[in-house]
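for the writeup, i need someone to sanity check this before i put it in the appendix. the sequnce is what the collaborator sent (i think, or maybe the updated version? ugh). structure was predicted straight from it, no edits. if anything looks off just tell me and ill rerun, i have time this weekend
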Amino acid sequence: MSRFLNVLRSWLVMVSVIAAGNTLQSFRDHSFLSEKLYTASPGLVNGLQARTFGVWTLLSSVIRCLCAIDIRNSTLYYITLFTFFLALVHFLSEVFIYHTAALTIGVMAPLMVASFSILGMLIGLQYLEVEALSQKKKKN
């Protein structure tokens, strides 16, 4: 396995662990979301919304961790890539369409993580294709 894919796997595990921590925070105290993410409309944040956010974050965390474990599983790889696109679109829409979030560090951090992850996973696709081709040649 290439060095880049090993770094990408480590990145996915790190992002997954951080997301799991955010999940716990969302279930423990919903004011976390109104103070860090949805600062433009904190009154819209309630316990139900925080728990829903927590479940979505937990699902993303599990998918990303599983991808790190089995990075050659193309279906799982594309689903993981989609989780980052979904996060990027969600936070951008909250800032620029719904105006419930402001461009604070609490929103910029997930935007940067999603953007870097998308870039890394798109580059990783090239490495996976090269790896698959070289294995195919070895079999022939």
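The radius of gyration is 17 Å. The chain has five helices and no strands.
thx in advance!!
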